[in-house]
Specification:
heterodimer; A: 356 residues; alpha+beta; 5-stranded antiparallel β-sheet; 20 strands; 35% strand; elongated; B: 310 residues; mainly alpha; MetI-like fold; 2 domains; 68% helix; 1% strand
Chain lengths: 356, 310
Amino acid sequence: MPSAVPAVGLHRITKRFGDVVAVDTVDLEIADGEFFALLGPSGCGKTTTLRLIAGLEFPTTGRLRIFGDEVGTLPPNRRPVNTVFQNYALFPHMTAEENVAFGLRMRKVSKAEIEPRVRDAIALVHMEGMEQRRPDQLSGGQQQRVALARALVNSPKVLLLDEPLGALDLKLREAMQLELKALQREVGITFVFVTHDQGEALAMSDRIGVMDGGRLLQVGTPEEIYARPANRFVADFIGHANLLDGMVTGPDQVTLTNGITIAAPSNIQPGGHVAVTLRPEQALLHPWGGAPEHHTSVDGQVEQVTYLGNALIYRVSFQWMHIDVRSENRPGGDPVSAGDEVTVSWEPSSVAVVQD
Amino acid sequence: MTLTAPPLPTGPGPGGAGTGLPEVTPEFERAAARADSRRGFLMSLPAYVYLVLFFTIPFGIVVVYSLATRNTIGGTDLAGWNLDSYRRLAEPIVRDILFRSVWIAMLTTLICLVVAYPFSYFIATRTPTIRNILLVFVMIPFWTNFLVRNYAWRVILGSDGPFAAVTEALGVGRQEILFTHSAVILGLVYGYLPFMVLPLYAAIERIDGSLIEAGRDLYASGAQTFWRVLLPLSMPGVLAGSILVFVPSLGAYVTPQILGGGKSTMLGSYIVVQFLTARNWPLGASLSFVLMTVMLTATLIYFRAGGRKL
């Protein structure tokens, strides 16, 4: 039964390094049992936020709680959290087994108890038979598993993961994404996961917090973040988006900078400078004038066709602006090539209006 | 010396017609490998010549003299080899000097280690600019001659020197440690501290800082992290520094001579006395041989015990 108290609570947390504000008044509550991703480009403050929770940095101001307990001033060894470091930080002078047992030994757990717990943790990450190997005798993926076991064996209340898949190659990374997600369900521990890979965040997380410039810009489920980005940065950072600049000129209506007016529902006052976001896969391509009745549509000319294997991206220009349309590569249908006159259409509900 | 493989007999290979150059053949590959190893030999030749001329041959001469006999007029009879001079090493006076030298060298090494470790850690964890400045500070004493620096200590530690003035001001009376073992150890620590700092710094600097953080994250206190993570990982530096301090301390001559007051406190001085004053070359040679063997053994132990990781 998950606790009603948030696993991690950040209240107006700020961290400065000299003149640089790495984390800027962040408020965040992460629920018990949640798989939470902190997502953003490098230097956005996501890793610093994680290190603040771990106790590897102390906040400049703010309150930091773990399951309701104030922990902001405690050193890392007195916090009920463990970290999986970016490059795993396995102790090179110890075997896999000694690495996993380290935390329990430091906490003076009895030998009789350490042994089965270490064995279980190693089994949990499927590393049986590798106990006596040293880190330099393990592959990247295996090191990653040992790092996970080394943290999980301590039954932390929160597990912190700093770009844990960053050093793995693509295939392994995708396999580990699924495995990590399954592992989190199995152990039921709150995972806080730092990544710069939006695909990874969307695929794995219950909720995502998008950060930029030390600020937490938006917190929401992957669906919310993708379909309803809070601002231009989020729309641009998550997935691919057409960002059409314009101004709100009436209720549910935006006039783009090239003079074309389109329907775009929003609650922004007329006169506000906005961008209309449209995901390439939400836009449909038709022969000239062939848009369905209830769709919003613009007419234009195909400027460029990009072949992606499983899909095609058509860049359609209309009055100095352009929209990328993504269409799955399926057999049949009329081939469209550069120079063709086309109509692009979309469901009115599939656009989101964002401000800078 | 050219850096290309010797030309080889060429056959008219198919496809080689375009450039006029021959195809690669196993013979060419073998010849290239031979040329490579010949280059390696030529490059290391000066070092080998140096080692043979200035180490192996003199060392052999020392061994020969250590087996010879001192004659009544202070000369050396090379005929009739025997182990008499090695038997004399067991005599109390010689044995005491031997033990005292080892003890002083060990104490010097230990003090250097304790003083240098925190300092090296401090340097290694600074920004690169500050790091380089601090390393220059470590090297500055080498700009002055070793002998001069030892005489400077003699002035500092002398009866009218600053050291006595400081101890008097501190209320412990005018302390004079010149011509004592303490002065010798102080001088040795002063002289050889950089040899401890540099390898320690190099070893600590290479340790991934996230390992320390991982230790703290896994419930280790600062002290536990030091003993369980930092110290084991910096062991190559600890060993290298200890050898670099222990070996010259054991054979030290200048410092015990100047700060120890010329008494035969340590092996180095005693060996000089045997050669110059007592004119007992076989005993001096046997002592030298023992000293060299101890040093070589220490170095070998170091290379065996993970020095390769450096």
